[in-house]
Amino acid sequence: MLSAKKVSLGLTYLVAIGCFLGLYGIANQIYFFLLLFFFLLGLFNEWKFNVYMPRWMLNTGGILVSLLFLSELSLENVVNPFANMILLLLAIKSLEDKKPRDIYQMLLLSLFGVALSTTFRLDLSFLFFFLYELFIGSVAFMLTNVYANVGDKPLQREFLFRYLKFSIAFPIVVAFATVPFFLILPRAQTPLFDLFAKQEKGLVSGISNEVELGKVGEIQQDNTVVFRVYGEVPEDAYWRVSVFDTLMNTKWVNTLSEKERVANLPASGKIYRYTVILEPTYDTFLPLLDYPLKILRLEGMKADYTRNKGGYYESTKPINRPVRYRAVSTEDYPRDPVSQVYLDVPPDVPESVRKLAKELSKGKSKPKEKVESVRSFFRKGFSYSLKLDKPEGDPVEYFLFKAKRGNCEYFASSTALLLRLMGMPARVVGGFKGFIKNEYGDYYIVTNSMAHVWVEANFDGRWTRVDTTPSYLSPAVRNISKLHLLRDAIISFWYENVVDFSAQKQVSLLRNLLREAKTLSLSKVKSALLPVLYLITALLLSYVLFMFYVNRVRKTPENLYRLLVARLSRLEGENLKGLLPEELLKRVEGKMYGKEASFIVHLYQRHRFSPYRVTKRELEHAYRVLRKI
User: What parts of the sequence cross the membrane (predicted)?
Assistant: First the structure.
């Protein structure tokens, strides 16, 4: 039979293991595995040997290691030392002889660990982790309270089950009771813990401040979601991220650092208003539908944004958590002024490339004719490929005259270079092309596999998109199934309605409720409440029927004994309900049905007052005996 200490301690270890899992990747990795080893060593000792180290020794070692952790504390590194401290204290407690006070402390430390993990973890998996800790932790707290009051005594199975039912019901009620507080309590516009956020280097999405030939081809095989879009977007959507003006060897880089004034809304052209939820990229770019006019609001982190030369936007801080921004774009091409850098050509351009540009522009006096000549050239004999041969000599020359196959960087680089050799201003734009419509959530997904670069040429006073890359669908996109989309819709709902439940949404919700309340009439109230009343009635009726079945119909030792007392009361002509089982045995002694009644009473006593379980076969036999009386 389980004792109160074993039950509460077993549940506490489950909660503490959850804390270790929650702090994985937050605590220092070396310390994490070392402390996990000592924690599991304490668990094994508790189960097998019950040999404990002196508290003074553990406490002295804990103080010394704590000083080591605290020495790493700084404004840039606040969370990690605290995570190390929590795991250290859990490991020490695991090695100690545990009284109720120690079990309470382990549970509280685990609770602090869960709270600390929220500074890094806001994804949907954290919801399940949090619910696990909530339920197991609540049950552990309550059963530890039993251990503190009754001591290390065996627990009756019936008592244990009843206590577990209440312990499980309690966190469910608490979880539902917190929903109104989640909706109405004031909340900050941005997270409180930006100070603690990771400042990782490098890109998740592969879009950077330069385009190197062959690089985006590698990214296009990665199907990680970069951002999600809500609102109206065109079918042939391009997402602007950065603009490159100078070709240096095999790389396009940006040398213009000027900031642009936010454009005014044009008088003509279709306007798109939409919302972007950008995943953490640990960079500063803010993808926008081409061509972006302005960002209306940036939410989710304490940062501002800037508009750069070329009409692309950046955040003033790296995106280290999901952020949300509303924006406006147009179908009109940009009209920003032309700089000399958009005409510059590297001096080492091969003569064959110069000759090709001259041939393509021969007899073409108008810029539009030159652009069409370049488009036509790439339609003949060129194909898209992610598998590229190592270029011999100049990569653009090798692509144009030998390989004639490549990814978007080769097509865009060659196009921009040919247009500049024809005397036309041109620049390379990096970003994404296309989207996947998620019907489950009515939004659009853009993944790394959609990374793309194209060209803009300036003529007729505006920059016009020139994309000579053949149409291509990445294998990664083709592998996205309906199950993937359903999973992404659930994740998106989590971010949109829980993580990103901002003060603006809160105010909007309250305003809508007040507006609806003002327009409510008695008939509307009745029509709205009627389904609710039907549902409540159905639930109550179901509950009554269920309880009737449990307490009156279901075959249990309790119901068996109740039926026996009722039957004997009819036979004896008086109410025997208040008699104890021993008194009932004396009343039936010597009666013609005394043997059968005694068998049922003894079976009930064994069920109630002994550790031996009544089997299903015994219960079926007892009901047959009852029918003989």
Answer: 7-24, 30-49, 103-120, 126-148, 160-185, 528-550
